[in-house]
Amino acid sequence: MLLNKEKVQVGSFPLTLEDVVLVARNKHKVDIAEEQKEKVNRSREYVEKLLDDKKVVYGLTTGFGKFSDTYIPNDQAKNLQINLIRSHACGIGEPFSEDVVRAIILLRVNALLYGHSGIRLKVVETMVEMLNKGVTPMIPEQGSLGASGDLAPLSHLALVIMGEGEAYFNGERMDGGKAMRLAGISPVSLEAKEGLALINGTQVMTAVGALACWDALNLANWADYTSALTTEVLRGVRQAFEPETHRIRPHAGQQLVAKNITKITRGSQLMTNQGEIRVQDAYSLRCVPQVHGASRDALQHIHDKLIVEMNSVTDNPLIFVDEDKVISGGNFHGQPMALPMDYLSIAVAELANISERRIERLVNPQLNDQLPDFLTKEGGMNSGLMIAQYAAASLVSENKSLAHPASVDSIPSSANQEDHVSMGTIAARKAAKIVQNAYHVMAIELFSAARAAEYKGPEKLGIGTNWVYSFCRQHVPHQEEDHVMYNYFKQLADEMKDIEAVKALKEQLAV
């Protein structure tokens, strides 16, 4: 369940997906833990000492990428950072949504507060002010290779911190400096190391992935409910979900889904026993625990990887004050996120795939247990849900193309200095699109199964299926004649993501 807190404090505890959602979507305020401020200050003091001692340090007194061997005098250190941001802000395409950008800022703040980046506390506090006062940088979606981190998109964030670029404020897109002025935030003049500290990291792919994973974990719950309703109205065989089968193949996700379906259909007058109508159901009904469960296990793995990455330092170079070291390494490389994001694509695509097959069973007169053809009583005059299944089929087909892994590709950059990159941000963006598509497929299944329930008798539904049927009817009235449905599909998909609906769903599962 979501934490009930007015502020999300960054630095005192590891960030969770719930924290990201609260800040990104619910606009909760952000506060910096006091104990982290000293770490940031000590790291900055160490950088100042390196400058005074005229040490040769990557990104501090050198150029970047292939120019890492080019020495930059101290008196040009500030210009070096400004040039870095302006030259690297090469994003392409449509802007990221507001929630994604807010998640990006939150995750970047969290990484900087570990005190290994050499940035001034003032810069971090400016980013927190942007979150709390509603200044959202315009960050294009495309242009990142996922190593060295998310350079191009994060540079668009840094531009606004400097009072440049573009941003959204009070719903209007405008000059970044104007947005900062209207919000009462003073732009920052970047100093040595700070530009690199702002843009060298994996926070864009991780932010996209965190929100997509949160939505996917909730979608897995909705998938259990919608599949249970479909199974019930198709007079499914209950024995497939009994615990004996799943005890001897003890995958955690499979056992959880079987338990959920049994709980959701408790009290049903529509579920059948083996041999009562048929001995066994088609795979899209009978194998829900195995299919949904495999996706759930994948999502748990992805969640765990995201938590590690959200609470990591992914800069280069890294400052280790206590050890008196500056180390140029590869924590910016996005591979630890690229693979989970490709896995997320596959896991969620499968939830949609099997959902579409259940939709087909609901509308197809050869498969739907004597329900009306395409769930309409006056077939011919009415087409019913014929084209709703087309739409679902189109989305799952699109998902199959999007699920092709991005992480298997790499194009060398920076004159082959950066000769292997992750494409992790592409992987995350594709995963997020698949999650969006899957919500619409699930909405079509719920819409269809709820209509089928009208013919079988809603009063015969189980406790949980009655709840999800009622949820659907709160937003979508039953209409027998043909009518325009696309807005209903969108409304259901949006309502499934709503934070209050998510809480209610989890409370139902806990009963």
From TrEMBL:
Main location group: cytoplasm
Catalytic reactions on record: L-histidine = trans-urocanate + NH4(+)
First-level EC class: lyase
Gene3D superfamilies: Fumarase/aspartase (Central domain), Fumarase/aspartase (N-terminal domain)
SUPFAM superfamilies from the UniProt entry: L-aspartase-like
5-imidazolinone (Ala-Gly) cross-link site: 147-149
One of the record's GO cellular component terms: cytoplasm
NCBIfam families: hutH, PRK09367.1
UniProt family annotation: Belongs to the PAL/histidase family.
Protein name as it appears in the record: Histidine ammonia-lyase
